[in-house]
Amino acid sequence: MKQYLTMAQFILDNGLVKQDRTNTGTISYFGYQMRFNLAEGFPLLTTKKVHFKSVVYELLWFIKGDTNIKYLVNHNVRIWNEWPYEKYTKSSDYQNETLAEFVEKIETNDEFAQKHGDLGPVYGKQWRNFEGVDQLANLIDNLKTNPYSRRHILSAWNPKEVDNMALPPCHTLVQFYVSQDNKLSCQLYQRSADVFLGVPFNIASYALLTYMIAQVCGFELGDFVYSFGDCHIYQNHLAQINEQLTRTPRALPTLKLNADVKSLFDFTYEDIVLENYDPYPAIKGLVAV
């Protein structure tokens, strides 16, 4: 994962100080690209521990077409909690609950979760029902029937619904590519990228999606290409990034999928096994909401 550290250093050296929507402040650079050969190992960051369980459950949540955090909360995945909580604090139902108390209500009260846990038509909705189109099912069918097409696209950016989303999609467009030697590659375009917190998750998530699709469609592994618009390091993450830059990347882990799974929509958490992951300790940082 040297590519990640190279990008972080590049942004520190060449980025511009820029204010942002969250009023946290960033060092920002526009336009960057990384490439990972998936045959060389699973690209999970080793210069800090990444919570792989959250990566898996979030991706399964997208694939299900779900947009309510209850599924994530029930599996102790906390990465989306702040956005519905922020909206809840502005509602008439708010009773000065802390974030932890809000999450407990989401977990234990189905009616409360239905009312206050939904994020609007975010990723899962667009993947599975973009104005009536199941993009993900179509993608799988087209990869199987017309693998060399240049139209293997998955879009999360829906202008008609973006204003109704708790957070407009950061990773907006995905394209898959099948080579003549039967290797599946994936390119992600991300309009906005939090380098410290978000990017390590996104690398792992779209690499995992590529592994899963390759298996169910009968392809070998190609590359994951990660293209950025505004890639930024928040001002309150500078110490964390600099700590990682002192660490030498370790060997990549191995990902194993249950070979009996033949449909993308049948994968469960137990079908996805990460082996030989030996990262440095985790580094905490606040999410900018």
UniProtKB/TrEMBL annotation:
Q: Where in the cell is it found?
A: Cytoplasm
UniProt keyword terms in alphabetical order: Cytoplasm, Methyltransferase, Nucleotide biosynthesis, Transferase
Q: What Pfam families does the database record attribute to this sequence?
A: Thymidylat_synt (PF00303)
User: Any keyword Cytoplasm?
Assistant: yes
Task: State the Gene Ontology BP annotations.
Answer: dTMP biosynthetic process; dTTP biosynthetic process; methylation
- Active-site residue numbers: 170, 170 (nucleophile)
Q: Which GO terms describe its cellular component?
A: cytosol
Transmembrane annotation, as ranges: none
Q: Provide the residue positions that the database annotates as binding dUMP.
A: 21, 150-151, 191-194, 202, 232-234
Domain of life (superkingdom): Bacteria
Q: In which pathway does it act?
A: Pyrimidine metabolism; dTTP biosynthesis
Which positions make up the signal peptide? none
Q: Name one GO molecular function term.
A: thymidylate synthase activity
Domain named Thymidylate synthase/dCMP hydroxymethylase: residues? 2-289
What general EC class does the enzyme of this chain belong to?
transferase
Q: Which reaction does it catalyse?
A: dUMP + (6R)-5,10-methylene-5,6,7,8-tetrahydrofolate = 7,8-dihydrofolate + dTMP
Give the family from UniProt: Belongs to the thymidylate synthase family. Bacterial-type ThyA subfamily.
* Cited function: Catalyzes the reductive methylation of 2'-deoxyuridine-5'-monophosphate (dUMP) to 2'-deoxythymidine-5'-monophosphate (dTMP) while utilizing 5,10-methylenetetrahydrofolate (mTHF) as the methyl donor and reductant in the reaction, yielding dihydrofolate (DHF) as a by-product. This enzymatic reaction provides an intracellular de novo source of dTMP, an essential precursor for DNA biosynthesis.
User: Which PANTHER family does this one have?
Assistant: THYMIDYLATE SYNTHASE, THYMIDYLATE SYNTHASE 1
Q: Which NCBIfam families match?
A: PRK01827.1-2, thym_sym
Task: Report what the protein is called.
Answer: Thymidylate synthase
Gene source species: Spiroplasma mirum ATCC 29335
Q: List the lineage, top down.
A: Bacteria, Bacillati, Mycoplasmatota, Mollicutes, Entomoplasmatales
